[in-house]
Specification:
Layout: H1 2-6, H2 18-27, H3 29-49, E1 53-62, H4 72-79, H5 91-98, H6 101-110, E2 116-120, E3 135-139, E4 150-155, E5 160-165, E6 170-176, E7 180-182, E8 187-192, H7 194-197, E9 206-211, H8 214-224, E10 226-229, E11 236-243, H9 246-304, H10 311-346, H11 364-383, H12 392-438, H13 442-476, E12 482-486, E13 494-497, H14 500-525, H15 532-536, E14 543-548, H16 557-560, H17 565-580, E15 587-593, H18 600-612, E16 618-622, H19 630-634, H20 642-646, H21 652-655, E17 657-658, E18 664-667, H22 676-681, H23 683-695, E19 698-702, H24 711-715, E20 721-727, H25 734-745, E21 751-758, E22 772-774, E23 780-782, H26 801-812
Parallel strand pairs: 14-21, 15-19, 15-20, 16-18, 16-19, 20-21
Antiparallel strand pairs: 1-11, 1-12, 1-13, 2-9, 3-8, 4-5, 4-9, 5-6, 7-8, 10-11, 17-18, 22-23
Helix pairs in contact: 3-14, 6-8, 6-9, 9-13, 10-12, 10-13, 11-12, 17-18
Length: about 800
Amino acid sequence: MIEEKAKIFKEDDDTIDVKKLLFKILSNWYYFAIMVFITLSISYFINRYTDPRYNLSSSILVKDKDNAISGGVESMVEEMGLFRRSRRKSVENEIGILQSYEIINRTINELLDFHISYYSIGRINTPEKYKSSPFKVILDEDYNQYTGAKIFLTLKNENEFIIESEDASLKQTKLNFNETFIHENFKFKIEKNDIFFSDYTNLPKKYYFIINNLNSLTNSYRAKLNVEMNDKKGTILFLSTTGLNIYKESDFLNKLSEIYIRYGLEEKNQITQNTIRFIDEQLSEITDSLKIAERNLLAFKVDNKVVDIDREGKMIFDQLVEIQTDKTGLNIKSNYYHYLLKYIEDKNNFKDVIAPSVMGINDQLLTTLINSLSQYNFEKETLLYSAKENTPSVNLINLKIQNTKDALIENLKNLISTTKMSIDDVDKRLAKIDIEINKLPVTQRELINVQRKFDLSDNIYTYLLQKRAEAGIAQASLIPDNKVVDIARPENAIQISPKKSLNYMIALVIGLLIPLIIIILLDFLNNKIIEVKDVEDKTNVPISGTIGHNNKDTDLVVLEKPKSSISESFRSLRTNLQYLLRNKDSYVIAITSSVSGEGKTFCAINLGSIIAFSNKKTLLVGLDLRKPKLHKDLNISNEVGMSNFLIGKATLDEIILETPIPNLYVIPSGPVPPNPAELIEGDSFDDFIKQVKARFDYIIIDTPPVALVTDAILLTKHTDANIFVIRQNFSNKSTIKLVNDLYINKNINNLSILINDVKIPGYYGFYGKYSYTYGGYYSYGYGVPYGSGYYDDDEKPPKSFFQKIFSMIKINK
């Protein structure tokens, strides 16, 4: 038996009822309409009053070894050995240079209009007046200006204005244009732009300006500057930045490109300048020696009346010149090696090292080491644009630099030693020539010595002049490695925010989502029984009826409003109970609920009334001995009642009271006893049931809530039907589990559910408002729509705001 009854229990179904959700959405459509209107309005104001932000871009071609243009002056200069082709540019490194603090800071410093920002104060927006301010602030460059503060300026007339600043502790001060203003934090004067003042009447009167901190401004532009390659193997860099003023961002990108190209040219120029400086130093030394040798040669020829060296002396002199030329070359190499060794040991920047080929040195190992050192130094510089010292990548480059530097120093020392040995060998050859010279006549011997010194100085001077000319040509022929492909143009700016279409779409989605989420959330969090389906889904215990919401001023609805929809609901309940009850002379019906407030007393009174109207002698018993309420609704005395009868202090006739309703009698609860359960369980109550069944057709018992006390359960052995009242929007969903438990475990027969205080949800309005009752497995009885004319005692509910609007629309149609 228990197993069969257990089949009435239904497991919880947590799936979303799409149809129910759709009905709820449709019934609350105006919330969606209102929310969408609000979100779209917010989106409109955002689009209307948000300052638009733009993206501007430019592009630069970066030349490297693979794409450099060969031939022409540049190739000729490289062939001179002044520039090393081995140092290939890394496009990634060039990106680091472009985004470096040094390059951007130089850009900001050269853009004078960036040093001070001007703003016009409007009712909503405060646009920047870049190059369009009606006045200009001229700063005293020698004064330490306070930066970052908003200095407000209000025009009083065409010649006067007031400035103030809370940030810089500057009180209101009235000034004239072109008047120098001195403050502890500022020193400047303000000039007016006559072009704007020609229409002073229409000119905005309130402004503020900010003296920018150039370091902060540099960091700001570093953060928003974006540099990308066109592809992995490409050498075109695309520069882009975003801002509120298209002209300002355009000027920044174009100036940045200019500074970057100039930076590369300056690097090349530094190499040629170092080369020229070194050659000039050598020329300065040899020029004096050449002048002295020339004077001595002329003086000797005049004094000794000789014109030239004789034939024998000429042969010896030619050998001497050849050996001396070799020594001159060795001395130049030695000087270069010593210069280079000192440079490498004393400095940490190796990008300006003079190439060996400039000095006529073609040592492959030396050239390779210098090129490697220069390349590693370049890589370190570019790496430091994006990384900090003591990072693994920088430490690796430092290790390569140190290893190359050590190898170069060792190589230079070896070259110096080797060169010295070569010079010593040349000196030995010169000593042999000197022996031959000493055999010549005195005049010829002395002439050869004087001529030798002159020719030596002259050859060195000529050689250095040639190198000086080559370096001069290189410097004059310098062209940048990089060039601008496309400049930034304001007319090509792309607005990136606000994105109006996207904002409206997001607003629409949010406007729909917010009420939808609220509806779903409220439905998910709600633990109350909202509709009949909530009961049907949890149990198969028969539903004997549904009672609509009572909006009357009385609980005696059947008596006072017999033609109301609620009265008709109780008639349907009376009919449905006939299917539950077996044919007997008398029936006992218990009405209970889980807790107080669910309307069991209201249902008991009106069910008893409607049965009495059918000419059935009906007794209404108030058996809620703990919290009696029946006497209050019927406005009768509670001094004598059931409690008195059960303890033997009153007879049955003494406690039965008549009511204004024919055939309806009532027994109040009486005074609250200390032991209600024991009284109900006693023999007196059994005797009571026998007596009243002999005298009445129906006995309706108003029992205590079963979730609080066990009194109602004790009655079940006497009852023919047990009605469990559930109140919509009041009873907890766990009440259904209590009903199932009572039916399965307590062995309560003929248990049915009565749903009270039913308010038909608005979404049912799509099918027409209706009141319905049905008897579960036994019978169904449907009422008639509210306001149909049948329920004359029903009051029509007032129309809502939206219903009134729709009514007006229909009338107009």
